[in-house]
Amino acid sequence: MAKAKKKSGGRSTRQRPRTDAISLLKADHRQVEEWFSQFESARSLERKRALAAQICQALRVHTQIEDEIFYPAFLQATEEEDIHHEAEVEHEGAEKLIAEIEGSGPEDDYYNAKVHVLSEMIKHHVNEEEKRGGMFAKAKQSDMDLSALGEQLAARKAELMASSGSTLRAAARRSAESRV
Ligand SMILES: [Fe+2]
Ligand SMILES: [Fe+2]
Predict the structure, then answer these.
(1) Distance between CA atoms of 39 and 150, rounded to whole angstroms?
(2) What residues does each domain of the chain span?
(3) So what's the pLDDT on residue 164?
(4) Stated pTM of the model
(5) What CATH class is the domain 19-178?
């Protein structure tokens, strides 16, 4: 009778939650989409600056773990060169725009346009990864070890977030100081 509180949904065992590679990458996509939509409705420059910084950091980490871990494993397992190469080229395009956004601020006339165009590029790219017959679907059909890759992605992501987190804090501090 006193068991009611245990009745939450989800896992019944206490083992470490396993994050498979696709779930981890899709969760990143959803997070960034949410921040892009918050950016679109943000009014204050400070809020825009903070959201853009979060978006850029998350995208840098996300594209890096894909480039280092997921994409090479995908190419090796599926030999889908076209899908792989196009995804890499799209990452490069996004990285250029991310660098421009990081090098400017919401007081720049083109800032909103740059963030908006980045969101459109990312929307297209995410669709290429997630669509029927796209990279993730093909990865699932292959013999890739998605759960081992998920662990590698999670570990590398934590490492990169920790180092870019301190860079982000330093940048926020500099920007706050420069406005005093
Ligand atoms: Fe992705
Ligand atoms: Fe990607």
Answers:
(1) 29
(2) 19-178
(3) 82
(4) 0.85
(5) mainly alpha
